[in-house]
Specification:
This protein is an alpha+beta fold and 210 residues long. The chain folds into 2 domains: 78 residues, Elongation Factor Tu (Ef-tu), domain 3; 89 residues, Elongation Factor Tu (Ef-tu), domain 3, CATH 2.40.30.20. It is built from 4 helices and 12 strands, in the order βββββαββββββαβαα. The strands form 2 sheets. Strands 1-2-5-4-3-6 form a 6-stranded antiparallel barrel. A hairpin with a 2-residue loop joins β3 and β4. The chain is globular and about 45 Å long.
Length: 210
């Protein structure tokens, strides 16, 4: 489990594809402090297990399922990725609960400077739009962010200078594909409502008239 507060921006050292998926090696330093083999690290919002490491890099085995669900199929040597170590009992939950289980990917449709802040608009598959609410939380490439507005399947995000400077968002451009994890609380609520929706006429009327 993670908070979505990025600790370090790493650089992809190598991507080695194989029949099971890929071996990903990332150059990094800060997130290696206290890390041992078998620990979890969030890489662009994806929870991965450290299978090898040295003083300047960590290696991860990535499954075909993870590649299919995320933007890892686009990763290449030299790309920048967001890194975060998993929570400890003493950690402050400064962002929101991020599992590292990416739901889908989205595409950056605009990146606009607003003085010292930066506005991003990101589109995603319409099937997920019921999982996003205005002022709710969302994880983009593992970054805990607040949704300013949502227009159908496009979310509007305001990025403060600190977040831009300390994540891979400063390298992102229009057309880039990003990983998206929706708020786990919203996913459970959506499932429960969907389960009873067709069975409860009062609930159906309430939701349809909301």
């Amino acid at each position: 489990m993670f908070t979505g507060l990025i600790e370090e921006v790493g650089k992809v050292k190598s991507v080695i594809k194989n029949s099971d998926g890929m071996r990903l090696v990332v150059s990094c330093r800060k997130v290696l402090d206290g890390t041992v083999l078998g620990d979890s690290i969030s890489v662009n919002g994806v929870c991965l297990t450290v299978v090898d490491m040295d003083k300047e890099s960590a290696s991860f085995d990535v499954s075909q399922e993870t590649i299919k669900r995320s933007n890892f199929s686009f990763l290449k040597t030299g790309d920048y990725v967001n890194l975060e170590r998993s929570l400890t009992p003493q950690s402050r939950l400064g962002g929101h609960i991020v599992q590292g289980h990416v739901d889908t990917t989205g595409s950056i449709v605009s990146k606009t400077s607003l003085g010292s802040h930066t506005n991003f608009k990101i589109s995603f598959s319409p099937e997920y739009k019921n999982l996003v609410i205005e002022k709710g939380s969302i994880a983009i490439d593992g970054i805990s962010l607040t949704v300013n507005y949502i227009n159908e399947n496009i979310i509007d995000l305001n990025i403060i200078p600190h977040t831009l400077e300390n994540t891979n968002l400063k390298y992102r451009k229009v057309g880039d594909v990003v990983n998206i994890e929706f708020d786990i609380l919203g996913k459970y609520v959506a499932k429960m409502i969907g389960k009873w929706y067709d069975k409860d006429e009062k609930l159906k009327n309430l939701l349809e008239n909301w």
